[in-house]
Amino acid sequence: MKKPFRQGVLTTAALALWLPSSPVMAEEGLAGENEESIVLDEIVVTSRKREESLQDVPDSVTAFNAVAIENAGIDDVQDFVDLTPNIIMRETFRAGVTFITIRGITTGQQGWAPVTYVVDGVQAGSLDAINQGALTDIERIEVLKGPQGALYGAGAIAGAINVVTKKPTNDMEYAGKASFGNGNDLKLSAAVSGPMVQDKLLFRLNGYYRNTDGILESTDGEGLDFEEQATIRGRLIADFENLVFDLRASYSDIEAGAATQELVTSADLIDAFDTPAAPGPARGIIGKENRQFVELSAKIDWDTDYGTFTSVTGYSDIDQDLFGSVSWQKPPAISLLGPVGGPADPFTDAFQDLADNIETFTQDVRFTSRSDGRFRWLVGASYLDREVVNFLSIGGLLSGLEKVEENMLRLVEQADLRKDSMWGIYGQANYDITDRLELTLALRYDENDYETTQFTGLDLETVVPTPDGVETQTANDSKWQPKVQLSYDWSDNFMTYVTYAEGFRSGFFNTGNLTAPESTQNYEIGFKSTLAGGRMRLNGAAFHIDYSDQQLTSVIGEAPFRLTTNIPESNIDGLELEMTALVTEALEVSGGLGVTDAKTVEGDKSPATPEYTLNLSVSYTQPITDVWEAYARVDYRHQGTFLIVDGTGTAFEVGEKDYVNARLMFRNDTWSIGGFVNNLFDERQANDFGFIGIGFVRSNNLPRSYGIEASVRF
Count of domains in the chain? Predict the structure, then answer.
């Protein structure tokens, strides 16, 4: 049944992408005479550090405003990634190890993400800070593709993700949402906003709570992806006319299932699920991770006659620890320590014990000219200071799973203290050569000093182990990142652009292994268009990337259990096409196509890069009464094949996948109630795969989930 369904969806997708753009539809069908005033809402973005219409920005940007976020049911990073072409995200053995790939550029474990992730102007200081659980109370999400280092820094080699939360309001507002799904998945969120002093001092508070047994089950029927999360966020804006202070604070406490991998006996089983040969994860030890996040930030905007001075200060502290299995089976079994759980074996099971602390301070200052002149510019400087403690221990349990701390015998221990100090200066200028032709020049210089200290002779009672012996390594990276761009407005509704930009990502230490920095040279041409009297947006881009020293991380079956290498040279070619159209007042269709051909200079396919992704979303609104309406939506995503490379250098292919989500809501201006299903056809995928000596370990995506949801706002 799956093949005919896929063929039918692909045919529907092709027709949906064609119909709104046909001349007949554009001139006659897309707008009936009673619907001439219907147009798509303008989306305002801040991707170039100033407010602009999405269609005026000569970059490839996928943006979701508050309405789109609500309609699509977006409440975590995976949700909006799956609606964006040429980007995938794979969560592996724990939430902090999240692999993101954009345009063929992916993630190295313990390294920097391929994108700069920014929330309200504050840069995330680590890969672990990106996937923090729920996204709530969000005003806008912007996904910028292509190197954005000139404005966003060395981590933006593949792009940037800009998340903007909802601001405090001058009128009292209240909102709440509740949902319940399979796996006893309860989610609650609430927000309140209003003035403390009218027009001068405004506040916003929002909270989130989740408790679920999980839907990824062991062979014994136990939920492995259970989670309990509590998050509270506060925001305060003090407005003194030309001087605005914006203060934010948040705290999250998460206890969740982790180390949920499945052990299979053959590489041929990479795409086999729920079969006798691959029945699912078997467990003795049920993995668990505790995570605490503290985030504080202060933003100051000072308007002058010449422009705006902005200062953004951020601080974050992440504490996380994980305890799980390294036999990935139910004893008696073979583990990394050898046999466990048999009558003559000393251990009842084998464990891994990991702990991380990541403390980051960031500072960005810039001066931005006014936006109403022919010549517009900004200059700025940024600083990041980060200290990371990583601890890894592997051993055996001497008896039972009760009183685990008393029964652990640690056989392998390693600890690293890593420090990064990164600073940069940057500037960008936009000049209207004519009323239609704009020249953009941008340049940034980044420098990173980083070091790692490996400890031996550990005192396990201290947060940072006391060393009897240490080994310290240091390194330094620096790079100029230029960007040159020309854009031309052929009309008020059609613009083309051509861009050359260089990208850079700093090197890093992975348990003592120095990973070289990487760089790119990027060439891109693109267009942005508004058609059918404002009822359709059609944007596209084609790009070529010369990629040097691609960073690649794999898990191996012996100490230090992580291996990082560099691929000397790769070439990436691709294109993107995105469309949104109001076919009628009630029917909206949107879609995206991403194609990426990424190969090493030897002709081998680059890892973690699907050949293509295809998105299609169809939504329909039907009035029921004078105040109530029904809203139905279906989201489809097709993901091409990609490779996963393990620590032995072996490449494993993940096959093509089709995912479908659906929502049906009944709503008015105050209330909404309805149901949802994610991964409707229960498509399964390996997120990570590799040989570790005792077999092949696979991290799996989540199976089908479904539930009901209700919300209120007033």
Answer: 1
